[in-house]
Each structure stands twice: as C-alpha cells, then as structure tokens.
Amino acid sequence: MTATRNPSPTSAIAAARWSRSSRQILQAVLAVLLGLGAGLAVTWVAGENPWRVLKVLANGAFGSRYDLGMTLFYATPLIFTGLSVAVAFQAGLFNIGAEGQLTLGALAAAVVGAVWPGVWAPLAPLVAGLAALVAGTAWGAIPGWLRARRGSHEVINTIMLNFVAAGLASYVALYLLKNPDSQNPETRPIGPGYTIAQFGAFGGAPVSAALPLAITAAALVWILMWRTVLGFELRAVGQNEAAARAAGIEPGRLRIIALSLAGGLAGLVGVGEVLGNAGKFKVGFSPEYGFIGIAVALLGRNQPAGVVAAALLFGALHKGSAELDLETEHVTRELSLVLQALVILSVSAEGLWSWLQRSAAPYASDPYGKP
C-alpha cells in the first residue's frame, strides 16, 4: 500500500495565505467593477450613454503618450500617500495627516533649492529629496510621539497638524521666500541644479524620476513589512497589541516609528512636484493627494502592490475625467469623484462580501449545492 503523505504545516500555512490573498485580490477587482458599473449607471440616469462615457474616460487616460504620461504623473504622488497611509494602517494607526506631511516635504525641498541654489548638480537633487524626506518624517513623528507618550489619538492630531502645515507653508511662501516675479502664492524658483529630468517618451507630460522612486519605495515597504523583524513587530502591534506586548514588543516605540515612516513617505511627494515639475513650492498645489491616499490604501488592501495598482486607477480616473467637460453634455469631470466614492464604498462593504462568501461556500465543495 502507498502511504498517504500529509501536507507539512509550512505548506498548509502557505496555501492558506495564498488563498486569502487570492480572495482579497478578487474582492478588490470585483469592487472596482461594481463601483465603475454603478457610476456608469449614474451617467445613464443623467442622460449619457454609459459606453460612450467609458470610452471617453479610457481615451482621456490612455489615448496617447501624453495622456498616459499624465495618468502616471497623477498616480505618482498617490503611490507615496497610499503607502504612507498603508504603513500606518499595518501598525493599527490611522494617518489622516499625509496632506500636511507632503506639504512640509515639498516646502522643505523648495526652501533648500531656493536658499542654496548653487549646490553641485548631481548632489543637489539628493539634498533636496533628503530634506523632503526628513521634513515629512519629523512631521509624522509628532503625532506618533503624542499617541505613544500622551495617549492623544492620532486622527485628531494629524488633522490639526494639516492646518498647521498649511499655515506654515503659506507664511514661508508669502513672506519669507516669496517669488518677486509672480503674483501667485509661491516661493522663489529652485536652483537649476536641483531639477530632475523628465522622461521624453510621454510627449511632454511631466513624468520624472519620481515615478521609479515611488515604485522603489513600494518595493522597500514590502521588504520592510514582510521580510524584517521591525516589519513583523509593526504588524503584530497593529493586529493584537496585547499579544505583542506579552511578547516583549513595546507598542509606543513602534507607533512613533510607524507614523515617522508614514510621514517620510508622504514627504517624498515633494520630489516629483518641486524637483520634477514646478521648480518651486506653490501654495495649494495638491488636489488633496493626502486624503485620496486613504482611498488608495483601502482599495489596495494596505499592500504595496495593491497601492500601486490603486494609484494607477485613481490617476486614470483623474486624467480621463478631464475630457468629460468637452466630450459629453450632461456629465462633467466631477464624475471621477463619484466613481472614486462608489469604488471605495464597494471595497468597504464587508457585509456584502461576507454574504457573497457565505452564499458561495456550499458550491465550493459541491457544484450542485448539496450539503
């Protein structure tokens, strides 16, 4: 007789993990399709042909090299802010302060470039990028320290710090480093050595080295969270603080680290905006990248690869919807906000997905539904 070999515990755990990941991916894809379908149904009620609206969105986002480049340009800061929110989520924290953190990061890069315009060209972008990283990290560490040492909730702290960051940035741009050649609220231009080249393959779209930097950041976050002891400790605190504390892990220290990392990732938005696009800090440059990053992290299931995919989707919606004002009669670019909201509602409808999973469970073992 041939002995039946039972699967090893390691292979069983790997299979269970793969099954869970597959379900999460399938759920995210279905949620996107459901949200888009509901949004297109709204356009039908408004008097537009949903198929035509979908074609306008797709053509506006991917119809040419320039359109594709603008989609990637919009997606780049969303990757940074989505990763920022996702890292905090993994540690059981809710970072609503990415908007303030990216504002301080962009401001720091612009201040360095304007105050020291003569820094050697190959070194200058690294110095400005490091300044953006440090500024965002410091701004994220403040609510982390307040949560760890004073028990103040990070949601309230990060919301308040967003307003503080906006006020500080406005003061610097209007009074300390105001651009004398412009009536707009912006700082003086950075030195020429600080600018990073844009890729010429996208027809003039401002796609720069910030895009591969964002992809690299996503890869590094995955390595940190799933291949290092620190990442394990962060996830342990986020999943079960009592068990983590019993295992000798100090949650307060890790909360400070988590929000510091989150702030640094959001601060890197300044690399693409200041060094790769505007060449200066402009007050109000962000169309709420920090808040959209929350939706990106939710749709991406707080996984780096999922965050990149979700950022590309939201970037495509943002770029494609710009064509709706010209190509449709009853629908405007605000449709992208409706689509984003419906997609997030679909992702967060845990009751719906649990019901679907329970309904499909009998058919998983018996295709005829027999017990």
Secondary-structure blueprint of this entry?
Layout (H helix, E strand, L loop, with lengths): L8 H37 L4 H13 L2 H26 L7 H18 L8 H27 L3 H23 L33 H18 L1 H11 L1 H6 L4 H17 L1 H10 L10 H11 L4 H17 L3 H4 L7 H14 L1 H16 L6
Helix pairs in contact: 1-2, 1-15, 2-3, 2-13, 3-7, 3-10, 3-12, 3-13, 4-5, 4-6, 4-10, 4-11, 4-12, 5-6, 5-10, 5-11, 7-8, 7-13, 8-10, 12-13, 13-15
Note down, in words, how this protein is organized.
It is built from 16 helices and no strands. It is mainly α and 371 residues long. The chain has helices spanning 9-45, 50-62, 65-90, 98-115, 124-150, 154-176, 210-227, 229-239, 241-246, 251-267, 269-278, 289-299, 304-320, 324-327, 335-348, 350-365. Helix 3 (65-90) packs across helix 13 and helix 5 packs antiparallel against helix 6 (154-176). The longest helix has 37 residues, at 9-45. Mean pLDDT is 88; it is low at 367-371.
Describe the structure in brief.
By secondary structure, this protein is mostly helical. Helix content is 72%, strand content 0%. The protein has helices at 9-45, 50-62, 65-90, 98-115, 124-150, 154-176, 210-227, 229-239, 241-246, 251-267, 269-278, 289-299, 304-320, 324-327, 335-348, 350-365.
Q: What are the key terms here?
A:
single chain; 16 helices; 371 residues; disordered C terminus; 72% helix; mainly alpha; 0% strand
Total beta strands: 0
Strand content: under 5%
Structural class: mainly alpha
Strand count, sense and barrel status of the largest sheet are: none
Question: Radius of gyration from the CA trace?
Answer: 23 Å
Order of helices and strands: HHHHHHHHHHHHHHHH
Q: What sort of overall outline do the alpha carbons produce when their principal axes are compared?
A: globular
Poorly predicted regions are 367-371
Distance between the termini: 32 Å
Indicate the percent of residues in helices.
over 70%
Overall mean pLDDT: 88
What is the tally of helical segments?
16
